[in-house]
């Protein structure tokens, strides 16, 4: 009899082990479940078309399969030299320290009535952003991707915000993808008029903004202003694919009231989706120091000379 009970106990224990193993296999870890690298899109939605050799879905953003940990609520990073990796931020992020690095992070923000970016590095120095994504959970006319100063951005994707990047002094954007920005009929930052979407906007009294080998494509954004809008000195736009806007690149001295210096737009390929068939617009006191190698992407022919007016 004792031997029979021993067999029963052994069988029950074995069954418990099988059930536990099945549960372990069927339930993903919390960290693995929080890896929404690229949300699914409705069936039949065409993928954004990126020219061969330029940054797109396969070369920007968080690599597929990267484990991500959710961070809820607004965060400020004030510790010099901090490295932040593998996070999804459901809140707005501000950096005030020096030499902070974000690696393989997703910036989603949250609901807000204030005009603000998903990531703000304006008051920091030496910030680096690598292999990251910016797309808001709650898109609105108030939300940009990043407001950047003294910041280097590599292999990152921006979509769904009003502006991709607002660039201040010492901003480098390289090997990144800005596309499908969010248009809204009423923008508090535009006095209630529609949004004024720019892929990258560089500001007056700033200097040293460099855009190198990016895809900045506003051709699928409703009524965009420009792929690149700049009033900064020492602007360099080098080797990018650029499309969309009234004019694709708009260089404007008028916020300064003086000539702009050091403007270089070289080696870029232009799409043909500007509203005014205008690859480059210069204001009357803006002059390109260098403009060689800019061509239409579809033919390889040189683009026309810049239009020049205020």
Automatic annotation (TrEMBL):
<feature type="signal peptide">
    <location>
        <begin position="1"/>
        <end position="21"/>
    </location>
</feature>
<dbReference type="InterPro" id="IPR012334">
    <property type="entry name" value="Pectin_lyas_fold"/>
</dbReference>
<keyword id="KW-0732">Signal</keyword>
<feature type="region of interest" description="Disordered">
    <location>
        <begin position="29"/>
        <end position="66"/>
    </location>
</feature>
<protein>
    <recommendedName>
        <fullName>Right-handed parallel beta-helix repeat-containing protein</fullName>
    </recommendedName>
</protein>
<dbReference type="InterPro" id="IPR011050">
    <property type="entry name" value="Pectin_lyase_fold/virulence"/>
</dbReference>
